[in-house]
Amino acid sequence: MASKHHVLIVGAGTGGLMLAMLLERASISYEVFEKASEVKPLGSAIVITSLMQVFEQLGMKEDILAMSKPFGALHIRDETMSLKGSFFTRAPYNFDNKERYGDYPTVLARPDLIELLLARVPAYKIHYNKRVVTTVQDENKVLIQCHDGSEHNGTILVGADGAYSTIRHNMYKGLQKAGTLPSADMEPLSYDYDCVVGITKPLDLESYAVFLETFCEFEVVLGKEIPFTMVPFGGQGANMAILSAVELANLLYDTTSVTQDETTHIFEEYYETRHTISRISVEQSNQNGALIHKRGFLGDIARYLFLNWVPTWLIKMHADQFNVYRPQVSFLPFVKLGGSFKSRTSKPSRRMQDGSH
Hints:
Elements: E1 6-10, H1 14-26, E2 29-33, E3 45-48, H2 52-57, H3 61-66, E4 68-77, E5 83-88, H4 97-101, E6 106-109, H5 110-118, E7 126-127, E8 132-137, E9 142-146, E10 151-154, E11 156-159, H6 166-178, E12 216-221, H7 236-253, H8 260-293, H9 297-308, H10 312-323, H11 350-354
Parallel strand pairs: 1-2, 1-11, 2-7, 4-12
Antiparallel strand pairs: 3-6, 4-5, 4-6, 8-9, 9-10
Helix pairs in contact: 1-5, 1-7, 7-8, 8-9
């Protein structure tokens, strides 16, 4: 029996579109609400890690490979452009990433990924100019009210609307009113880095031969008198959003009841699966960002030790944390996980196993 849920997805970014595409493949009812008048594929480069098996299941692996390059190296320079050191991501400290995990980390432009996902979601299921203002829920349904006065009902509401999420803001107001919001979540959002994103006109590849190289390499320049700028480290937010979409779609596919108890159970399972891995990603992203960009004597010492003295086993341990669990879409045919490292993966859908799909 198919799922009876109707999912309201707020936000047509990477996570929202990925979830929509998965629900489309799972034949689960959904709608996407986007506050802009159109999806503008903007953003910086992202590095895909632990995800290629999902794109292979979805028949998108060749598209991803065609629009991306393996992440080759990260070169760190000071303000005089003197090279401080390099980290070669495809083969860090004498072990090969592809041999161990099946693929190199892959760099692609976020706009290309957005367009790829957008092409796989029926246009009539995305509603534009729908800025959500309020949310209301009871035991049976959730309702969103938009700034144009329209109202929309569903059984599950997914906030995929970014760091300053209206959905999360409304949820926090309810939790705070009930006295159940943790004190740490009452603090305003802070930021650690400035991010500058620029868009150029198309460039002549003959004049910029670097774009024709096999691997993609990044240069990071350390600031001196002014605050440094950076791209959010490795685009891990996009990776985490896609992995979260996979896990939620897997759980919804096996669910037929829309009772509050069953829905609560879904999100308890979701939390159990995603929380630890997401926390590790956030912590490592913060550590890596500080390690690469921290200025001053301590920053120089930390970078020197990292680039010259970190043992191979420690690098492997950190890389293994990202690859210890490589999920797959539970309701699609599984693919073989590449590499010598033995990762865990998702369990096949219960409906697929008992033939009720």
